[in-house]
Specification:
The complex is a heterodimer of chains A (about 260) and B (about 325). By secondary structure, chain A is of the alpha+beta class. Chain A is built from four helices and nine strands; from the N terminus they run H-E-H-H-E-E-E-E-E-E-E-E-H. Chain B has a six-stranded antiparallel sheet, with no helix packed on it. A four-stranded antiparallel sheet of chain B has the order 1-3-4-5, with no helix packed on it. In chain B, strand 8 and strand 9 (about 275-280) form a beta hairpin. Classes of the chains: A alpha+beta (about 260), B alpha+beta (about 325).
Chain lengths: ~260, ~325
């Protein structure tokens, strides 16, 4: 079995490419079985676009806090901002140490949840497909039923899924527009609409694509694309990263009683 | 999401007393396509059963007819008051409007604690009594918050929106009582609306995490004993609290040790009733294990929505900045 998997892997086209020859295992309902623990292996969470390495926001953390270089995961390389939105993105970047929702341990939103440097797990159940993220215990249930209008705006959105062959397509609406796409300040409004595509290309990779549209922020719809890597450790499981307590000094430290008062 | 208040009026037929799981009943639950007992569903909690039984009730697990009738009458009165408060909901206050609060459907169960038989918490160990006295330089564990707000660390996990812990996430409270169970081959997931938890429970018999890894929600492993899902959870921290909202229970911080071993047993009593039992085994804290029973009723109409507690936590800043403002007023 192990040998067969390796052969399949070797035979597969580069992970990011579509491999229509690959037939993934089946879930009990007959659809492709995408279940597993996955993680992105790129710098999209630092910046979706092309970026060189640069210093972090706190010299005290030395090279540990610096920001690694990375190539764009955006189709065409650049996010098509409207001019005023681009100004806001730049301001976000300048203030990222305190304003990035990740610094505050806020839920990551979609698509960011999928390419943070933490694993997440897909579990396919008869009630829908669960995405559980290690970061901030965020999660979402993808409803495979008939799409309906979002009841309210949320961080992780209202998620409806369907299958196109072996590709899981998730339509995400009802996003509250408060999450960022990355630590570079890329953002959208609550008009954001994301259509995600998760395609298994071999036993160890999902091809992830997200079509992003928000006419108030961008001049046209755009896409990001990246492989997601299966965590193949035998004991792979999500651990707990309840980061609220790591953000409290940043958020509330200013209100702590000073000695002698 | 709050359950529709009208539910209370609709629930005209009182639920039968279900204070002890009756394992003699030969109910055969449905199976998932892969052959596990199928516990999946929306199982919101039902407010109204106290954790501990009033002492004067002794070992009695069910209310008498008279007591139950009185409880129902009280619930009806409360529901009327709540519905009237809808009209006045634009008044200013620090708590939620009355109609917003989930009151639950009256049941006959006299306490969540079903063991010890008196429905009361067992005595604390001597070491735990001492620990609680000495904690945080004599201030005690935060648990039930006592009003001091020198720093965010003075407030409990409830105010801090960190987590309610495993039990605090399922013990019914005044809002956000949604619980959903989902299953897949090799996994059970328990989602709690409070606070957007999704506990992934492997059923494949893998060992627990190494002891150095400690988690608020612990590390859960499940297996089936007949039609009962048994979940054993270890690797806890000693930082959360057992009790409603993960903030202890009235008059007690609910502190437990990191050695806590939690055994949950989930059994379908009938198609629409799930008995959730949890045994709290922590010899460092309590002189004997104790067990709670929460009877969950299926409600597929319940909408479990995202509870962004921390993201919307305005109260923390207000409590702390308010305390500082009070102090500077006094020094002037």
């Amino acid at each position: 079995m192990r040998i067969l998997s390796i052969l399949l892997l070797l035979a597969a086209a580069p992970a990011a490419a579509q491999n229509s020859a690959y037939r993934p295992p089946r879930a009990p309902d007959g659809h492709a079985d995408l279940s597993g623990v996955y993680e992105a292996l790129n710098t999209a969470n630092w910046d979706l676009e092309d970026h060189g390495a640069h210093a972090g926001t706190l010299w005290q953390t030395g090279a540990i806090g610096s920001e690694p270089a990375g190539q764009s995961v955006v189709e065409g390389g650049v996010i098509p901002y409207k001019p005023e939105a681009l100004e806001k993105k730049k301001a976000n970047f300048a203030n990222r140490r305190t304003n990035d929702p990740e610094a505050k341990c806020y839920m990551p939103g979609i698509p960011r949840a999928n390419y943070m440097p933490y694993p997440f797990q897909i579990v396919q159940t008869p009630r829908g497909i669960m995405f559980i993220y290690e970061y901030a215990s965020a999660n979402r249930l993808v409803d495979m039923g008939k799409p309906e209008e979002a009841l309210t705006d949320t961080w992780m959105g209202t998620n409806y899924g369907h299958w196109e062959g072996d590709t899981l397509v998730v339509d995400v609406t009802g996003l509250n527009g408060l999450a960022w796409f990355d630590r570079a300040g890329d953002f959208a409004s609550k008009q954001l609409h994301v259509v995600e595509r998760f395609t298994p290309v071999d036993p160890y990779h999902l091809n992830y694509e997200a079509a992003i549209e928000d006419p108030t922020v961008f001049t046209r719809p755009w896409k990001i694309r990246m492989p997601l890597y299966r965590r193949v450790e035998e004991n792979a499981q999500l651990l707990e990263f309840k980061c609220v307590e790591f953000a409290e000094e940043l958020l509330y430290g200013q209100y702590t009683k000073k000695p002698g008062k | 999401m709050m359950r529709v208040v009208l539910m209370m009026f609709v629930a005209g037929v009182s639920l039968l007393a279900q204070t002890q799981p009756d394992r003699s009943k030969s109910w055969t639950p449905p199976k998932t396509p892969w052959g596990d007992p199928d516990l999946q569903g929306m199982w919101p909690g039902n407010m109204g059963v106290p954790l501990q039984r009033p002492v004067n009730m002794g070992d009695r697990t069910a209310l008498t007819d008279a007591e139950f009738a009185a409880k129902q009458a009280q619930a009806k009165k409360q529901a009327q008051a709540d519905s009237q408060s809808t009209a006045a909901s634009d008044s200013v206050g620090i708590g939620p409007p009355s109609y917003w609060v989930e009151r639950g459907t009256p049941t006959r169960q006299t306490s969540l604690i079903v063991d010890p038989p008196d429905g009361r918490l067992p005595p604390l160990t001597a070491a735990e009594q001492e620990l609680r006295k000495q904690a945080r330089g004599g201030k005690g564990f935060p648990g039930e918050w006592r009003g001091e707000a020198n720093s965010y660390a003075d407030l409990n996990l409830y105010y801090r929106c960190i987590t309610r812990g495993v039990l605090g996430s399922i013990i019914p409270v005044i809002y956000n009582n949604g619980n959903e169970i989902l299953q897949a081959p090799g996994y059970v997931i328990i989602r709690n609306e409070m606070i957007h938890e999704a506990r992934v429970i492997p059923l494949d018999g893998r060992p627990h995490l190494a002891p150095a890894i400690r988690q608020y929600m612990g590390d859960s492993r499940g297996h089936w004993e007949g039609n009962t899902l048994v979940i054993e959870t270890t690797n806890f921290t000693d930082k959360d609290a057992i009790g409603s909202n993960g903030a202890g229970y009235p008059g007690d911080p609910g502190h437990h040790s990191a050695d806590l071993k939690l055994i949950e047993r989930l059994t379908l009593a009938d198609a629409n009733t799930l008995n959730y039992e949890a045994t709290i085994d922590d010899p460092k804290t309590w002189t004997r294990p104790w067990t709670i029973l929460i009877v969950l009723k299926r409600n597929e109409k319940y909408q479990l929505l995202e509870y962004a507690c921390h993201e919307g936590n305005i109260a923390m800043g207000d409590i702390l900045s308010g305390a500082r403002a009070e102090e500077s007023k006094k020094t002037k």
